[in-house]
């Protein structure tokens, strides 16, 4: 599925040259019948028409780019409003201090009434079920256990589109539940819809059920009942396997090292397909719709397009555009960096903070050419050390360390 808003980018140079060749051949053929003066006049007229045609096409494309940019602005406003409405509904029940929404590392899903939520911390490897009850129900053990069982069942079956915000963003249903192969019973069997009841009973027996008082923005006091469920020990690798073939295919397509793509996904989302940052960025490789995602789509499909959360939450789309964007950084922005390892370091840092900030780390300015000249005068170790100490944000300094270290974890999947 491709976005609806699109405009073809004509390959002007190729089309124009082809037309010029054909018409110029015809022009030469007709020189027998026309004087030199007529030939000059016809040729000048032809060139003028071609130039006007090119200018018109360029103007049309520029105008369309402006329209798409305006569509992004309007859509962004709609998304901000939807997210604020979502926050307001959460805070009404849970209060500001206890409000929790999805992040890069954690997926959070609420029921429609916002009185219960399931969350999974993909970095820590634990899932959590939380249910709001009335203070008068705090000692009703049977009621509490029944509600916990219901929420565990929902969590096991959830394919990532039950949450109210996910519904507004039209987040696509995953092919399998988010926690497929991520939970196991006492006898190490995968938890499925068939054995989830047994699993819930086991969890209630071995896990502590906590109670915390919360006060909603509506002024009402409630009790949050909380139970934590561990994921399987190798949870991250199991999630990575789900996207292994997709990553390998896109890496081959865009001629980049698959270990780089795996490491970026690992660092950006911990292989959480529903990752969402506050920027907002979406999906496995945390693509920002109006910048990296848009640039990558333009590069791959030669059309400008409005990318929705629905599109970027789809793993196949996300990995395709994420790999394409890495290719842009390696083969366009930092093409002139001579040392392959230095080029990799610059591309990784740029994926996180932008090429301009990488250039600024070397020269204090955002222009790439002077920065690349300086980079080419350094060894790759010197480039790495310089980036670690001079990049403007500690997040990016840590990012290049994490990504390059994690590439080693996926060597066997090359």
Q: How much beta, percentage-wise?
A: 5-15%
H/E element order? HHEEEHHHEEHHHHHHHHHHH
Q: Helical region count? A: 16
Tally of distinct domains: 3
Provide the gyration radius in Å. Answer: 27 Å
> At CATH's second level, what is the architecture of the largest domain?
Orthogonal Bundle
Reported by name, the CATH topology of the largest domain is: Lysozyme
Which ranges are low-confidence, i.e. pLDDT below 50, for 5 or more consecutive residues?
A: 4-35
Number of strands: 5
How do the strands line up in the largest sheet?
A: 1-2-3-5-4
**Major sheet:** 5 strands, antiparallel
Structural class: alpha+beta
Q: How far is the first residue's CA from the last residue's CA?
A: 28 Å
Shape: globular
How confident overall, as mean pLDDT? 89
Portion of residues within helices: 55-70%
**What's the CATH first level of the largest domain?**
Mainly Alpha
Give an overview in words.
The chain has 414 residues and is α+β, with helices and mostly antiparallel strands. Helix content is 56%, strand content 8%. The protein has a five-stranded antiparallel sheet with strand order 1-2-3-5-4, covered by helices on one side. Helix 11 crosses helix 12 (340-353), helix 13 (355-363) packs across helix 14 (368-376) and helix 15 packs antiparallel against helix 16.
């Amino acid at each position: 599925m491709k976005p609806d808003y699109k405009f073809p980018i004509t390959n002007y140079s190729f089309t124009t040259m082809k037309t010029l060749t054909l018409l110029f051949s015809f022009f030469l053929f007709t020189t027998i019948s026309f004087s030199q003066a007529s030939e000059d006049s016809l040729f000048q007229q032809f060139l003028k028409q071609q130039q006007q045609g090119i200018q018109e096409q360029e103007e049309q494309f520029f105008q369309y780019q402006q329209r798409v940019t305006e569509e992004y602005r309007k859509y962004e406003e709609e998304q901000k409003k939807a997210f604020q409405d979502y926050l307001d509904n959460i805070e009404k029940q849970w209060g500001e201090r206890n409000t929790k929404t999805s992040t890069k590392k954690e997926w959070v899903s609420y029921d429609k009434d916002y009185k219960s939520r399931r969350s999974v911390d993909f970095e820590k490897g634990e899932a959590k079920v939380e249910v709001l009850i009335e203070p008068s129900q705090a000692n009703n053990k049977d009621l509490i256990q029944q509600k916990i069982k219901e929420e565990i069942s929902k969590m096991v079956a959830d394919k990532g589109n039950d949450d109210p915000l996910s519904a507004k963003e039209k987040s696509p249903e995953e092919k399998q539940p988010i926690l497929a192969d991520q939970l196991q019973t006492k006898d190490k069997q995968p938890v499925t819809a068939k054995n989830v009841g047994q699993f819930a009973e086991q969890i209630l027996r071995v896990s502590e059920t906590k109670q915390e008082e919360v006060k909603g923005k509506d002024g009402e006091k409630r009790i949050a009942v909380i139970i934590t469920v561990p994921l399987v020990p190798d949870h991250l690798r199991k999630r990575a396997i789900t996207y292994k073939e997709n990553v390998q295919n896109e890496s081959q397509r865009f001629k980049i090292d698959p270990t780089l793509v795996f490491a970026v996904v690992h660092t950006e989302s911990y292989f959480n397909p529903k990752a969402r940052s506050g920027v907002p960025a979406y999906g496995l490789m945390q693509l920002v719709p109006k910048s990296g995602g848009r640039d990558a789509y333009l590069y791959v499909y030669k059309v400008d397009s409005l990318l929705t959360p629905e599109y970027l939450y789809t793993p196949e789309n996300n990995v395709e555009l994420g790999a394409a964007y890495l290719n842009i950084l390696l083969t366009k922005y930092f093409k002139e960096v001579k040392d392959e390892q230095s080029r990799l370091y610059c591309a990784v840092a740029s994926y996180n903070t932008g090429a301009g900030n990488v250039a600024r780390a070397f020269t204090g300015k955002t222009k790439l050419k002077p920065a690349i000249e300086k980079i080419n005068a350094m060894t790759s170790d010197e480039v790495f050390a310089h980036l670690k100490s001079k990049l403007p944000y500690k997040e990016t300094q840590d990012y290049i360390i994490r990504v390059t270290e994690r590439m080693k974890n996926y060597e066997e999947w090359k």
